[in-house]
Amino acid sequence: MSLNCVWFILIFVLLAGYAVLDGFDLGAGVMILLTRGSDESRFFINAIAPVWDGNEVWLLTGGGALFAAFPAVYATVFSGFYIALMLVLAALIFRAVGMEFRGKADNPRWRSFWDTAFGVSSLLLCVLFGVAFGNVLRGVPIGDDGYYAGTFFDLLNGFGLIVGVLALSVFTMHGAIYLACKHAPSQARLTKYAQVSWVATVVLFVAATVAANYMAPSLLAPAVSSPIAWFFIVLLLGAIPTVPFCLRLRQFTLAFAASSIMIISMMALAAVGLFPRLLPALGEPGRSLTIYNSSSSHLTLLTMFIIALIGMPLVIAYTAVIHHVFRGKVSLTPDSY
Amino acid sequence: MNGLDVGTLCRIQFALTIGFHFLFPPISIGLASLLVLVEWRAWRYQDPVADSAGRFFGKLLGLTFAVGVATGIPMEFQFGTNWARYSKFVGDIFGAPLAAEGVFAFFLESGFLGLYLFGRQRVSKKWHFLAIFMVAFGSIMSAFWILAANSWMQTPAGFVIRNGRAELTSFADAIFNPSTLPRFFHTLFASFIAGSFFMAGVSAAVLLKERGNQVARYTLKLAVICGLVVSVMVVFPFGDMHARQVALTQPEKFAAIEGLYTSQTAAPLVMFAIPFNKPPELKAKTEIPAVLSWLVFGRIDAKIQGIKDFPPDDIPPLWLTFVSFHNMVVLGLYFIFAMSYACLRLWHGRLFEGTKFLRLLVISIPLPLVACELGWTAAEVGRQPWAIYHVLRTADAFSITLSAREVLASILMFSAIYLMLLILYLYILVAKVRHGPDEAGGKEVAA
Fold first, then answer.
1. A307 in contact with B at a CB cutoff of 8 Å?
2. Containing structural domain, residue A146
3. Looking at CA atoms only, how far is residue A30 from chain B in angstroms?
4. Helix (H) or strand (E) holding B290
5. Cα(A81)–Cα(B12) distance, integer angstroms
6. Rg value, chain A, Cα
7. Is residue A94 situated within a structural domain?
8. Nearest chain B Cα to A74, which residue?
């Protein structure tokens, strides 16, 4: 396997890690929007407070790795999706400070305001990430200079929007289940939210697959011919019914594992469909950015691979330790927000 | 947009966003390192005063860190969004330190900060100490990687130009390029100063309100002792080391910041002057003969190149580089005097008495940050007109797909958000300091 393929997989791992980890605190943000200002939302905030920052680092590292391994893709996607990414930045900033500022004044309107800011930013991020991902899957217009040749409004096409709403529903489900693991008194209510968003997720995933048949046909062909794809299809088909089954049995930790597998499988299927392209060019397949024509030099890919080999086991080890320390139900202490 | 092209707007946005971001990491790095000392005491000596100090400053660290993280995210995005041509040109080299910063630093800082802030009840004292140690270590690692990347723009090394881009030939040469270590240590110690003045000023504010507060007495003492050591070290050896490196590797920048416009032997050290750009000229100059040559080369007859020796298209703006550099030096001297005087008062047992000096410490809190901003301005404006020194011009680096309208809109967005962040940060900081640390050993009431 060439280093280019290795880096395709590693960037997928970073982004899937981000989706599974920050996915639950984005979804928790949507729940906080529904319970804003209440004591319940305070429990929700504190359920994600110790870990959300570390979760978000997966995105930053994914961005850094994309920059290092495939600079042409990083340059084209980031400059091309300018307005969308500026909105992402604004939402990320509001989320980060909303969490920190919320508990700093004992005033119900202040708390309600920051809960709303946190929730709206979380919801917006789910949709924006979904729309951006949908557009990458569908392909975007690329000029002969290798840069994005469309506008912000070109991103708001049918397929992009379906994936946007799909991302919102899957992260909402994921976040509701995470909170159910963390706060027993809200479990009945959270289970309902998780069930509703589970239905939406399944419907939207089917809709996205059908839409891809018409709008992104090059995506589906590899996804049914490759054995790797079938592995993830089976995994996905196993995980989908497991989620509501475990919710009914009140086995929230298992439900969380199943919903994580759902997210990973869906993203893996998309990655298999995309491979070896990173950014398909709409209408001009020759201009697509692939892992070969947009990569860094061999030496850089190798150096980065060594960094990843040293760094990632450490990261996974202490991420696991920290999640282990904060396992179990959330309780409010003097250090809480 | 008359007069303001996309390139200029991208530069304004970058200066605005990084200038604002850079207010917070120096405090985080400095404060986290001081908290390592505080928590060590709390753990090894079971000292309730140090424990209470850790809780109090830990919350301020959390607040500062959150704003630092929030404003740091746009930095990594902006290379791609606003500087796409730069990103394509340097991705082979520049992306690696950014990714390494993520893998080796961000994960450490953010993960262990959560453990430090929220884990007091969940882990042992030893693990809690280890958590703040990891936060401090991670924040220093983060500074290293980001300064390695930035230093590569100042003194690029370990690459060739091939396939229309810069390609890596040696990772070690690129990371440890000629300016990385001098700039890393100088900036790191500047951050320690920012942390010391922050801790000293906050403690002084608490003491002004409650004279006998044991926690504030302890942290003030710690901050002024550490503050004196790091204020001296930032100038010597590290400032001196950095200045000599600039003189040897970026002579245009050195001539601009020092105000040396004509090449000469026995070059003077300019203490005060008003610089003019066209023609390059210093007015109302006060200088000490031969000192600059002696400082750089150890000989008073060494020749140093002046600005007029370089092509006019390759020299940085003269006024801004000279003024920011010299004001940074003035502040650096003030830090040494202020901390020396504080240690003298401590020696005589008068540090916690009186009000004038404590008030001076309070209003000095932002000064190290001003010095950081000035030093950074001298460094980055001094690199112009190059994005990568002698390799890529800034004018060839910004994204060509952007319109001036889009960038203007994002500048307005960032300005509005950052203004709000600054006001809220200060509001919460003042409220926390007014509330003060809780009685040593006493349990804090949940807010």
1. yes
2. 3-325
3. 20
4. none
5. 20
6. 20
7. yes
8. B80
For residue B248, what are its two tokens? 């040897």
Give the angle subtended at the CA of A96 by the CAs of A95 and A99, to the nearest 5°.
80
* CA nearest to A103 within chain B: B447
Sign of the dihedral defined by the CA atoms of residues B313, B316, B317, B322, in that order: negative
Residue A74: inside a domain: yes
Q: Over the stretch A127-155, which tens digit does the pLDDT of each residue have?
A: 999 999 999 999 899 988 889 888 888 88
3-state secondary structure of B166: strand
Asked whether the beta carbons of residue B401 and residue A96 sit closer than 8 angstroms, the reply is no
- Domain containing residue A148: CATH number: 1.20.1630.10
Domain tally, chain A: 1
Cβ–Cβ under 8 Å, residues A172 and A27: yes
Kindly determine whether residue A304 and residue B99, on different chains, have CB atoms separated by under 8 Å.
yes
B123: left (phi over 0), alpha (psi -120 to 50) or beta: beta
Q: What is the DSSP string of A51-105?
A: THHHHHHHHHHHHHHHHHH-HHHHHHHHHHTHHHHHHHHHHHHHHHHHHHHHTTS
Nearest CA in chain B to A312: B103
CA B268 to chain centre: 28
- Mean pLDDT by runs of 10 across the 447 residues of chain B is 78 94 96 96 93 94 90 90 93 90 87 88 89 95 95 94 91 94 96 97 94 93 96 91 91 90 86 82 82 85 88 90 93 96 94 93 97 96 94 91 91 94 92 84 40
Q: How far apart are CA A328 and CA A330, in angstroms?
A: 7
